[in-house]
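User: Okay, second chain of the day. Same drill as before: sequence in, structure tokens out.
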Amino acid sequence: MNSGKPLPRRFLLLGTAATTAGGALALSSCSVSPAGSTTVPTASGASAPPGRPFRIGKLSEINVGDTATGKANGRTVVVFRAEDRKVVAYDATCTHAGCTVAPAGTTFECPCHGSTFTGSDGSVITGPARRPLTPLTAAIDGDWITVVA
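Assistant: Same drill. Structure tokens below.
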């Protein structure tokens, strides 16, 4: 993973997102329960049910204190590496108008209306967004960062 840049395709497990109504993803505020298994789906081309971890990139590709982006189950996610062996992840959908936020050093920025969110907890630094980014379950599995989406 590179700070502020999408993960290389070779590290992404791409799935086809389920067809949703235009704003359904932006309005989603449900958290996903952690899965007991660390098995990564191997089928490509189809979405897996929520609750399964997806490898989104190598831990070594993101420095401590930096942010990155990736795909999990066809969903764009953003990640912050808080410590050597700790990562946090969020749905990349801005809580203001549904645009996709992007990594920006230690923060995430929305290119549409300028909202900024902290990498460490997803809280709003500057609006117009008023709600934090939706947290996802992230873990380190060997050399991989996994996210449940």
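Confidence is low (pLDDT under 50) at residues 5-47.

User: Thanks, on to the next one.
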